[in-house]
TrEMBL record:
Domain of life (superkingdom): Eukaryota
Taxonomic source organism: Pyrenophora tritici-repentis (strain Pt-1C-BFP) (Wheat tan spot fungus)
InterPro entries: MFS_dom, MFS_sugar_transport-like, MFS_Sugar_Transporters, MFS_trans_sf, Sugar/inositol_transpt, Sugar_transporter_CS
Name of the protein: Quinate transporter
NCBIfam families (alphabetical): SP
Coiled-coil intervals: none
PANTHER family, per the entry: MAJOR FACILITATOR SUPERFAMILY (MFS) PROFILE DOMAIN-CONTAINING PROTEIN-RELATED, PLASTIDIC GLUCOSE TRANSPORTER 4
One example GO MF annotation: carbohydrate:proton symporter activity
Main location: membrane
Length: 600
């Protein structure tokens, strides 16, 4: 018992493939703690460290570099119970990565459209020069915002599909809808007008809306609690990688191709690549065991759970997890009821309404940071700062976001937790926005460009604060609301809750994208002050209303959200879980002793 308890609550965990990394206090497949502690990467590649001499030499080398502290900081996680190392295997990471091709679709579509509309070849083919300023703003806003409108309805549609055909098949369905929409856009040209692009973006929006509902749920239901934030974070990383390509593709095309129909059609065609990768990868993916159990498919649930956890059916960890899911499903059937419509009846429950409110507000604050005004209209944003190389600066913005997302994914989300990140990001981001607003108010660089076309010292500082804002926003508000929303609902209401959360995201996305051109035209520097105020207001909201969720099993979320005060709920529940684990270990030991005595 002491060996098992010594591993709780913090242990170094293997991140990817069994046999690739081995650190101290690991448990083997039988659940027993390994006898030899590992203090540095010297034995990470031996999984047993048989070569003592080589191990000592490598230990000294890594210690001299100070590697141990960095490695342990990156790899230390909080667990709800002792967990076999086999659980943290390549299958669960690969499943999350394959599903996150959907996020690449979303990120790319969100990023490429703004710079595509700014391409001279696109503007010339669709005669933007002949439009009035108001008509042009309306046209651009419609092209961008119909995508969000489609995504809003797609998010709700995914609730129905996931209920009847499951998470995996739903992903395939909504990806096919996205592909149809992307194909429609490829048929557009100057003679046919913008109709095919607008109609195609509606269908593409439906597809990404459905995927934005499904992917966080699917990943969270597969994930061990200790790395759930990290695995759902892969979804956000996929979003940023797609966005990175979307930000840079038009810069590359503008630099290497003469203006032509082909120049602007290529970015529309690239949408099909991540969608195709998801379809191919979906053949390998397994269904969510939690969904299978909720449908009474126990045999399939057990088979898929054992495959994902890389453990045999009779392993205590599998048996405990299956029992916990069973208990939660039964509880939900009693309190909510089975069927398609019962979760809607659950909306009458105050605790469900409260969590829907929290989830929706998180996306209000996220969009209130200004991120989607920048994503969709980055050339306009950088022009307001006096930057003339909009495509290049936008590309750098994409790089910064992607790098910081990787840092958030590997180090922050499951170590610092969700709420601290949100509050820190909001405070720092707000201060940056205030500075940018003050600079534009005083210098008005868009209407008073420098004589040599270069940025002034004030302009350089404004760009610096813009990237500093990116550094605060990306590791906090960019992906964390998706993680929290994927965790906070019970099994019976999770699909509907995530549908509402995703729809909220796309609703506020639509509002921002639809009215950003008009806001910049009428408010000027006031746009940045508006976003700064909203970021400040989010801080007390998070502190008083959002409990920390890192390391808490999905089946204990009801308990977490019922505890008061909210900002103390997480440590109190972890202590309760620790006490319960002590009791369970004693029961298992007594049972094992009894069986041994009977055999004797």
């Amino acid at each position: 018992m002491s060996g098992a308890r010594g591993a709780w609550p913090q242990r170094a965990l293997a991140l990817l493939v069994p046999g690739t990394f081995t650190t101290s206090a690991f448990m083997d497949s039988s659940g027993e703690k390994q006898p030899s502690p590992v203090s540095s990467p010297s034995s990470m590649f031996a999984d047993g460290a048989n070569d003592l001499v080589a191990g000592i030499l490598l230990d000294r080398f890594w210690w001299s570099l100070g590697f141990e502290k960095v490695a342990m900081g990156l790899l230390t996680l909080v667990e709800d119970r002792p967990t076999p190392k086999a659980v943290y295997n390549w299958r669960v990471y690969t499943a999350a990565s394959v599903a996150s091709w959907a996020a690449c679709m979303i990120g790319y579509d969100s990023a490429f459209i703004g710079t595509t509309l700014a391409l001279p070849s696109f503007a010339e083919e669709f005669k933007f020069a002949e439009m009035s300023k108001a008509h042009l703003n309306l046209t651009k806003a419609n092209i961008v915002s119909v995508y969000q409108a489609g995504a809003f309805f797609g998010a709700f549609g995914a609730y129905a599909s996931s209920h009847y055909i499951g998470r995996r098949k739903s992903l395939i369905l909504w990806t096919l809808i996205f592909i149809i929409g992307a194909g429609m856009m490829l048929g557009a040209n100057g003679d046919r007008g913008l109709g095919l692009i607008i109609g195609g973006r509606v269908l593409a929006g439906l597809g990404v809306g459905g995927c934005s509902n499904m992917v966080p749920i699917y990943i969270s239901e597969l994930s061990p609690p200790a790395v759930r934030g990290r695995l759902v974070g892969i979804y956000e990383l996929g979003w940023q990688v797609g966005g990175l390509v979307g930000f840079w593709i038009n810069y590359g095309l503008e630099q290497t191709m003469a203006p032509s129909h082909k120049q602007w059609i290529i970015p529309f065609a690239v949408q099909l690549i991540p969608a195709g990768c998801l379809l191919i990868g979906a053949v390998w993916m397994r269904e969510s065991p939690r969904w299978c159990l909720s449908k009474g498919r126990r045999e399939q649930a057990l088979k898929d759970l054992c495959w994902i956890r890389n453990l045999p059916e009779d392993h205590p960890y599998i048996m405990e997890e299956l029992e916990a899911i069973d208990a939660q499903v039964e509880h939900d059937r009693i309190t909510v009821g089975p069927g398609f419509w019962k979760p809607f009846a659950a909306l009458k429950q105050r605790k469900v309404q409260y969590r829907l409110f929290l989830g929706g507000m998180l996306f209000l604050w996220q969009n209130g940071s200004g991120i989607n005004a920048i994503n969709y209209y980055s050339p306009t944003v950088f022009k307001s700062l006096g930057v003339t190389e909009g495509f290049l600066t936008t590309g750098i913005f994409g790089v910064v976001k992607t790098v910081l997302t990787i840092f958030w994914l590997l180090y922050l989300i499951d170590r610092l937790g969700r709420t601290k990140l949100l509050m820190l990001g909001a405070l720092g981001g707000s201060l940056c926005m205030w500075y940018i607003a003050a600079y534009i108010k005083i210098a008005d660089p868009a209407n008073n460009p420098s004589r040599d076309g270069k940025l002034t010292s004030g302009g350089i500082s404004a760009v610096f604060f813009f990237y500093l804002w990116t550094a605060f926003y990306t590791p906090s508000w960019n992906g964390t609301p998706w993680v929290i929303n994927s965790e906070m609902y019970s099994q019976q209401t999770r699909s509907l809750g995530q549908a509402c959360a995703a729809a909220n995201n796309w609703f506020w996305n639509f509002i921002i994208s639809r009215f950003t051109p008009q806001m910049f035209s009428t408010m000027g520097y006031g746009v940045y002050m508006f976003f700064a105020c909203l970021m400040l207001l989010s801080i007390p909201f998070v502190f008083f209303l959002i409990p920390e969720t890192k390391g808490i099993p999905l089946e204990r979320m009801d308990e977490l959200f019922d505890m008061r005060p909210t900002y103390r709920a997480h440590p109190l529940l972890l202590e309760r879980l620790k006490e319960n684990e002590d009791v369970n270990v004693v029961i298992r030991d007594e049972k094992a002793k009894g069986e041994h005595n009977e055999m004797a």
